[in-house]
# Entry
Amino acid sequence: MKRLLIGLLGYTFVSQHTLAQTDSIANTQELKDVVVKATNGIKSKYRIDNTDIIGQGQLIRAACCNLGESFTTNPSVDVSYSDATTGAKQIKLLGLSGTYVQMLTENIPNLRGAALPYSLGYVPGPWMQSIQVSKGASSVKNGYESTTGQINIEFLKPQGTDGVRANVYQDSELKTEVNLDGSIHLTDRLSTATLLHFENRQMAHDGNADGFMDMPKLRQYNLMHRWAYVSQGWISQLMLRGLHDEHEGGQSLKHAGGALTEPLYTTSVKTNRYEMQWKNGFTLNADHNTSIALMLHGSWHDADHIFGATQYDVTQKNGYAQLMFETDINDKHNISVGASFNHDYYDEHFNPLATLQKAERNVTHETTPGLYAQYTYKWGDKLTIMPGVRWDHSSLYGSFFTPRLHVKYSPSKVITIRTSVGKGYRSPHALAENVSLLASGRQIMIATDLKQEEAWNMGASVGMNIPLWSKTLELNAEYYYTHFVHQMVMNFDGAKGALTLSFENLDGKSYSHTLQVDATYPVLSGMTATAAFRLNNVKCTYDDGVLRQKPLTSRYKGLLTLSYKTPLELWQFDVTGQLNGGGELYDLSHYPAYFQLQAQVTREFRHFSVYLGGENLTNYKIANPIVNAHQPWSAAFDATQVWGPVTGAMAYIGVRFKFEKL
# Structure
C-alpha cells in the first residue's frame, strides 16, 4: 500500500525507513512490510514536523464531548470560552488565537471563516479516531493559511471495525449527549458507516446571581455518512455531513428579577451546516511509491446571531479542490507537486445596535488558485530536509509566495532535533470569525482597507528518549517565534474612543514568543505521568505606537496529568491539574492565576465501559464574568472579557457500548 494513499486514509504506518502522516486504526494490522499501530497520545519522533498525536486512548481520559474538550491533557493547546453568554469556545496555539491555526479534517482544509467561532462544538468526541497537533510552519501541501500550526482531525473509518458503537453522557448541568455509529463491510473492498450525534441542555442556571445564564441552553443534531472503497490501485472515500445547532442564552425571567423596566437581553445562535468531502488516491508505480490524488470539498454554512438588539447573519459557501502527485526518485529523494483551487463566498447582514433601522450587507467573493512544490531529502534515520514553496493568486489580494523549510536531525536514538521556518497568510473576516465580540455594548468599527494577514513563524524543538531505571523518560523542549508583517488588530477602547471596538490594520510590531518544556515518564507499572510548563510573551502595537501585552492571554501555563490502569486494564484512573497564569484585560488591569483540577474513573466490561468524572473540581470561577450585567443595554455592557471558568464544579457519568459484527 502506498505512502500517500494510506496517508489519505488517515493511517499512521511505520515501515523500516518511513512513516506517513496522520493516524492509526484501532487494531494492529500487517500490510506486507507495513505495520499499522494504534496510538494513545504520543509525540511522533518519525515526523519531520513537531507533532503531538492525540489517539483514542488519550481522548477517553476525559469526558471529551467534542473537539473543544479534547485538549485537556495536551499542554500545547489552550481552550477557553469566547464570551460569557453563548458558550462558544476558542483555542490558542503558541500564544495566538485559533484563527492562525489551520483546521483540517482528514488532511483537507475545513472549519474556516464563519464556522470558526463555534467549530470546536461541531466535532463530537466519540466520532474522532485521533487528532494531530502540528506546531510551527506546516507543509505547503495543505495551503498557505497555517501560521502557528495545524490541527488535523481523523474520524472513525468505515473500513475499520465492523460493528456498532454508542456513547451516552449526562452531567450535573443536565446536559445530555447520545452518540451512535455503525459500520458495515459490504465486500472486501467496499464499506460504509453512519455516525449520529445529539446533545441537549435546557436548564437555565445562574450561579453568580447576575441575572444571566452561566451557560446557554443548547440543542444540536449532527449526522455523518461515509463510504470507503479500498483496492490495490485505487482508494476512494466519500463523506456527507449535516448539522443543526442552537444556542439560547442571556437573561432569563427566572433570574433577572421581577422589577424589570427593560426587555430581557437575550442571545441566540442558530446554525445549519452541510458539507461533502471526496478523496481519491491512485497508485501509478509501486516500486517508487508514485501516486496521484484528487481531493474535493464543499460546504454551505448559514448562521443567524442575535446579541440583544444586534443582529448578524452570515452565509458562507466554500469549494475546494486539490490535485497531488508524489514519487520517490530513490531512497533519498522524494518530490511532491500539486495544484489547489479555493473559492469563498460570504453574504453578511449586520444590524448593529447604533443603526437598528438599517442593516448593512456585505457580499465578498474570493477565488484563489495555487501551485506548490515540495522536495524531501532523507539520509537514513539521521537527517531529513524538506523545503517547499507555494504560489497562490487571490482575486482580492493578488499573487503571493509561501516558502517553508523543515529540518529533522537525529544524531542518536536518544535525541531528535527539529527546526522550521515559514510564512503564513490568511484573509481576514472581522465579524464572521469574531462574532462572539458582539456580546458587548461597544460601538463596532471595521476598516475598509483591511490587508491580507501575513506572518513569519520559526522555531526549534529538542526531543530526548532517555533510558532511566529500565524505563524511558521522554523530554521535550521547544521555542517558537511568530512575527506579523500584516495583521488585523482588534483594538478595544483605543484611539477611536472609549467603549469602542475597532478592527484595523497593524501599525507597528506584533509578535509571540513561546517556550515550553514537558516530560513523560511511567512512574509505576501501569501509571504514566506527564508534566509541562510553558511561557508566553505575546505583544501587539495599538494606537500611537503603544506596544503592550495582548489582552486575555495568559503569561504561563503548568500542567500535570496522571493516568493509571490496573494490571488487567479493567479500571483506569485519570487526574489532570492545570495552573493558568494571569494576564491583562482591555483596560490594562490584571487578572490572577488560577488552578483547575479534573478527574475520571473508568470501569471496563466485555461490551461496554462506564466512566464517572468531574471538571473544575477546585470550583474556581470568575466572580463577575459580565461587566455591567445590571445594565445590558448600555455601551458599558461587556460579556467578552472571559479569562477563566464561568461555571463551578461539574460532575458527569457516561456509558460506552461496543458490539462487533452484529
Notes: Residues 463 and 476 are 4 Å apart (CA to CA). DSSP finds three helices and 40 strands in the chain. Helices lie at 3-9, 56-59, 253-256. The mean pLDDT is 90.
